[in-house]
Each structure stands twice: as C-alpha cells, then as structure tokens.
Amino acid sequence: MHPPLTVHKHTDCIGEIVALNNCHIEHPVMKFFTTCNDFKAKVDQCLNGEYEKRRRDNYEKAKENRRKTEQRWKEFRELK
Questions:
Q1: CA-to-CA distance for 12 and 63, rounded, in angstroms?
Q2: Whole-model pTM above 0.85?
Q3: Which top-rank group of organisms is this from (predicted)?
C-alpha cells in the first residue's frame, strides 16, 4: 500500500504517478486484475527511493545536530 499519490509531495515520481493514474483511468475494471501492476511496482520503487533519500538526509542532519550539541556541551563544561 502506498501513501496518497499527490504530485506536489512526490516531485521525483511524477512520471510514474501519472502513468499509474492513466492506467487506472483507461482500465477502470481491469485495474483490479493485474493490468496496472507494472506501473504500481514502478511507483512503489520510486517512493521507496524517495524514502531512503529522506532517511539518509535526516540521518546526516541528526549527526550534524549531535555534533553541534556535543561541541556546545564541551564549551559549557570548559566555562566552569
């Protein structure tokens, strides 16, 4: 299951989302019988890539924030 596919939130996956939505429009009944599975797999793969990118970015930000905090604590201890 994927999150709601609003294009403004998933700018890296616009092409895949549009293709999946077009498949659902063109095949309103057959979409339930594996007709659009290839498009869905591409969307899932793209969303997983976005998730991993956000995860890595957040991890790097957290490391930087931790480094700054440790530096401030070190400076604070030296003031005493």
A1: 25
A2: no
A3: Eukaryota
**How many whole angstroms separate alpha carbon 78 and alpha carbon 80?**
5
> 1-52 pLDDT, tens per residue?
666 676 667 788 889 999 999 999 999 998 889 899 999 999 999 999 999 9
Under 8 Å between Cβ of 26 and 52: no
With beta carbons less than 8 A apart as the criterion, state whether 31 and 24 touch. yes
Measured distance CA(34)–CA(22) in Å, rounded: 15
What tokens were used for 62?
A: 């957290």
The C-alpha angle 48, 51, 56, rounded to 5 degrees, equals 125
List the structure tokens of 6. 């609003």
Q: How far, in whole angstroms, is CA 64 from its chain's centroid?
A: 21
